[in-house]
Design brief:
It is built from six helices and six strands; from the N terminus they run ββαββββααααα. By secondary structure, it is of the alpha+beta class. 30% of the residues are buried.
Amino acid sequence: MHEENIQELPGRLPVMVLPGVTLFPNALLPLFIFEPRYQAMLEDALNNGRMLAVAMPRDQAEELTEPVAGAGLVRACIRNSDGTSNLILQGVSRVRFTEWEQREPYRIARIEPLPSLGGLQADEEESPETALQLTQLHALCSRFKEQGIELPAQFESYLSQITNVGVITDLVASTLIVDPAVRQELLEELDIPKRLTRLLSGLREQLA
């Protein structure tokens, strides 16, 4: 999956509220489900399209969430004997919550898909500025490796094969950006060139 498949989204999704967790399109997110409300939510999701959204809370009580979240598809799920589950969630698209249909025992929201903007058309070439930024991005990823930060298997080779700049930004942000606020900022940025610029500054801040 190398593009955001917003056409696959339903009009409503169950929402898992997780502090510090961001689900980017195309990224794989491992989750351990142990809370009873999310066990029930997972059961419903598996029986209804296998999709859910992951949002960050705006307060400790989780009364408010960030308005933009990641929608994902459950790619794998292992049920444990104690009722918990281990699952792999694959990001599909950015979404905005437009209405809460349910808050207990878990949240269900009406959603609006958020496609990325500013991507290249089929007959267009990268601008010199974008090409330079992508070169800088690969160099920064190499610096993380040089500092002893373990990257996922085949991360670099996979990154070099991707031509969609939006997918590249999401993959790198999901893998290397650790600050939840910066991750949320990158998730909310729909303009791909602006997202790339913010990603570069976020990586430099971490390496400083």
